[in-house]
């Protein structure tokens, strides 16, 4: 095999990296990966660094999603379960806010269109499926534009 992939937890990986780095030529085909648990904890830490001092802590604390004592552990990624919960709730809130903005700005006639679809019960299911598929497709395009910064840096963040 040209490469050997090894998955380890963080403690074993630290020791393995020391061993591999002591003889880089001999172990140039060894790739060490963190396991899922530690990989996700590192991602929580990176997200925490990105959102620190952005008001994220205040929103999380004021909405009673997390206590003030646990907030530091969520930000630095050390409290895995709480970080999973907090980041999931915040991600859902941001997604809902973005969807609401899309519907208000780009689909203002949505209630009228749904009423016209509901008026004909024979074609209701087929029309609704096509209509919703179109809206979802357009919303995905909107999300790409937001992530590319087309609506400003704050929305992109």
Identify the notable features of this structure and list them briefly.
157 residues; mainly alpha; 3 domains
Question: What does it look like?
Answer:
The protein is mainly α and 157 residues long. It has three domains: 1-34, no CATH class; 40-93, no CATH class; 107-157. It contains eight helices and two strands; from the N terminus they run E-H-E-H-H-H-H-H-H-H. It has a two-stranded parallel ribbon with strand order 1-2. Helix 4 packs across helix 5 (80-106). The protein is elongated, with a radius of gyration of 23 Å. The chain starts with a strand and ends with a helix. The model has no long low-confidence stretch (mean pLDDT 86).
List the helices and strands and how they pair.
Blueprint lengths: L3 E5 L1 H13 L7 E5 L1 H16 L4 H7 L5 H8 L4 H27 L3 H9 L5 H24 L5 H4 L1
Parallel strand pairs: 1-2
Helix pairs in contact: 4-5
